Amino acid sequence: MRSVSTRFRYLWRSVPALDLRDNEYRPHAFKKIMDHVVKNHENLAMVKRFRLLCFDCSYGEPVICRWVDLLTTLSRSNLEVFRIHLSRQIVRNLPPSQYHLNLSRMNITCQKLKTIWLSGKIVIEEIPIDVCVFFPCLKTFRLKVVSIVGGNTLNKLLSGCPLLEIFKVEDCFIDSDRDRFTNFNLPEVTIKTLYLEYLVKPSGIHDVDGDSNHVLSPGSASIQVTHQSKVALDLLKSICNMVKDLVIDNVDNVLFKNIDDNGAIVWQNLTHLVVKLNGSPSHALPFLVGRAPNLVSLVLEKGIMWDNMRLVLPSVSCSKLETVKIIVSGGFEEMEIVEYFLKNASILKKLILCYGSISEEMRAMIVDEQRASGCEPFRITLVDS
């Protein structure tokens, strides 16, 4: 280091990228370094890339807020890449703390952002109904293991990014009560995965009405519904036209029983659906299967008890359904659901039943059951688990 000219000593004060991680420093030393950097940089407004990776949980939210605010609240920010990771590790003798991020405020100052990547102990605050979010240059939005307040927050963000190309969510939590995250209570909704990709229109130019030249290529989602709530419904409304592959877990009867009576939610692009049902009849079937006119493949996985199936089956014709797989942890006695799909799926090609046990009488009834499908070859597969 002594061979380097002293004129390079303060060059860092004008660099356009700040890439900082605390696992390369001794404990508590990183805080002093970070304070020094944000205090002595000559022009934070010219920083284009900011990456902060914190694996030490002892800083506390006020310290992290001060660092981030100095970079994102500048009136003429040139920030293009915003990446923050805060470790979710629980430290003994320290109160649980999370960084609460207000993206609606960033939207005002960070108009040049192209990438937002957030992970760890971060809570994205709910965006008020009367607030419009607009990131005109944003192309990549990634969230991993973060908490989100409000069922409409993601939809607000998606609708305000006209040039978005990649939107990826992994193992994130959604709840209407921000305190639930701090108290380690089970959130109302868990998004295991949500992946959306936007493609440029063939013309490559904006429409006459000024709309974006990017169009959604329907993606995939895996969602676990823990509580019956408006948050879950708001999220499902947001993504109903965005996904072609959907896995929905732990669905609750009451959640789907009386919602959306006017039929506003239609899963227009959904082609592959996996529904993991709880132990009682689920009204999720009419809400999902009954409103997915282009469904091609369906997997139903249920608990041991599942009675009165005829009461909750959707009264529609599954005109495009080709494959049905039913997974039963106990004995298979639900002949009604077999009859339903054989009679209503007009082009059904494959019916797969995975069960714990089945009587010879039931096996014969399934094989001999009349079906509406005229497709050949047609196969019924009985798999004893």
Automatic annotation (TrEMBL):
Domain called FBD: residue spans: 314-380
Top-level taxonomic group: Eukaryota
SUPFAM superfamilies in UniProt: RNI-like
Pfam family name, one: FBD
Name of the featured protein: FBD domain-containing protein
